[in-house]
Amino acid sequence: MKIPMLNIPRMQSEIRDDLAASLLKVLDSGQYINGPEVAAFEAELAAYIGAKGAVAVSSGTDALIVAMMALGVKPGDEIITTPYTFFATAGSIARLGAVPVFVDIVPGTFNIDPAQIAAKITAKTVGIVPVHLFGQCADMSAVLKVAEAHNLWVLEDAAQAIGAKWQGQMSCTMGKAGCLSFFPAKNLGGLGDGGAVISNDLEFIEKVKVLREHGSKPRYYHHFIGGNFRMDALQAAPLRIKLKALDSWVTGRRRVAGRYNELLKGIAKVPVIAEGAESVFNQYVIRVDKAARPAIMERLKAADIGHAIYYPVPLHLQPCFSNLGYKAGDLPVAELAAEESLAIPVDPKLSDDEIKEIVNIIKG
Ligand SMILES: Cc1ncc(COP(=O)(O)O)c(C=O)c1O
Q1: Which residues lie across from 169 on neighbouring strands?
Q2: Fewest CB atoms within 10 A around its CB: which of 47, 136, 286, 331?
Q3: Residue whose CA is closest, atom 10 of ligand 1?
Q4: Nearest CA among 131, 174, 123 for reference residue 151
C-alpha cells in the first residue's frame, strides 16, 4: 500500500470546499498582496500563539532573514545555532554576512545543547538561534539563561514547531521573536511558500513590517534597506482556514506518534521527548543502527512508503561552510544523528492498518 510522508489532499479533504471558496474570494477581491486577508491572518495567528504581534512574510527563510535584519545583524556578527537543522537556519545568518557558530546537539532530542553554548561565546557574539526541531522545543529555560547572562538576543526558529510548548509556554513567545514556515509539509502548510515573524515586542513587529516592504514608511521614503518579504493574499486566505483545523491535525499526529511508540518497541529508538516539552510532531524521527539503515530504507522504498533522512549532512560539514573551518568529528552528536535518523510518515490521518504496515516493513 502506497503511503506518502504526508497525504495533504486527504488531510484537508474536510475543508476542501472552504479552501476553494477562500481562493475564489481572493480572485474576485482584486487585492493580491498584503491587504485584508493577510491582516486578518496575522491577527488570528497572533491570537493562536498568544503573542502580541505577527507579521506574515514570503517564507520561513525570509522570516529568519527579516527578523535578523530587524535585530540589527551586521557582517561579522557571530550567531550561535545548531548544525542539525534545515539549511535555512544557518544560510540566513550567512546571507546577512554574519557567521553561524555551531554548537552540538543533545543525544536525545536532536536539539541544541545549551550546556555547550557558553564556551562558544566571543566578543562578536550577538545572539542565539535555537531550532525547535521536528516539532519539539529546544531546552528554552537553559538557552534563555545563557543568553541573559551574556546579553544576547534569542530568535526561535520554530519553522517546524507552531504550537509546540516548553514548560507550558508557546514556541515563538520565549525569545525576542520567533519564525514560522508555512511550507506545505509543515503542520500549518500553505498552498505554496509562506512564513511569519512572531513577537511580543510591538516596536519590533513594526520594524519587521517596514523591512518587509523595502524599509519604506511612508511608502517611497526609505529609512532602512529592507526587501520584498510580503505574503500573497492567495496564501493568507487558505492559511486562515487551515489554522482552524491545526489543533485537530496535531491531535492526529500525536495519536500516530503514540501508536508508533508502542509498536516500534525493541525495533528502533523512538523519539525522545524532554520533560517539559510538548511536541507537535512535525516529523516522527526514529534512530536505527547506521549499518541497518540502508536496508530499512530499501524495504520502505520497495513498499512505496515515504521516508527521509533529516538531515544527511550536518551544516558544519556542508561544502558551502568549509571556510568556517569545521572538520568531521567536531560535533559528534550531530554527526551520529545524521547517520542514524530516519523520518517515517506522521500524517494525522494515518489509519492503524497503515501504521502497522509501516512498522512491519521497518521490522523486516
Ligand atoms: C528548521 C527550519 N528553518 C527554516 C525553514 C525555512 O522555511 P521555508 O522553507 O518556508 O523557507 C525550514 C523549512 O523548511 C525549517 O525546517
Answers
A1: 166
A2: 47
A3: 60
A4: 123
Give the Cα-Cα-Cα angle 336, 342, 347 (nearest 5 degrees). 145
Q: Which of 132, 160, 280, 310 is the pocket-test mutation for ligand 1 (most atoms within 8 Å of CB)?
A: 160
Q: In terms of pTM, does the model score above 0.85?
A: yes
Ligand 1 mutation pick, 133, 179, 181, 310, max ligand atoms within 8 A of CB = 181
Q: Beta partners for 11?
A: none
Cα–Cα distance for residue pair 143/140, rounded to 1 Å: 5
How far apart are alpha carbons 178 and 40 in whole angstroms?
A: 19
Instruction: Dump pLDDT digits (tens) for 180-203.
Output: 999 999 999 999 999 999 999 999
How far is the C-alpha of 286 from the C-alpha of 108, rounded, in Å?
11
Atom of ligand 1 nearest to the CA of 182: 10
Q: Which residues pair with 157 in a beta bridge?
A: 131, 179
CA of 84 to the centre of ligand 1 (A): 13
Q: How far apart are CA 302 and CA 6, in angstroms?
A: 18
Residue-wise pLDDT tens digits, 81-113:
999 999 999 999 999 999 999 999 999 999 999
CA distance linking residue 333 with residue 313, whole number of Å: 12
Distance in angstroms (rounded) separating the CA atoms of residues 179 and 252:
24
For the chain, domains (ranges, CATH) are 8-240 (3.40.640.10), 246-363 (3.90.1150.10)
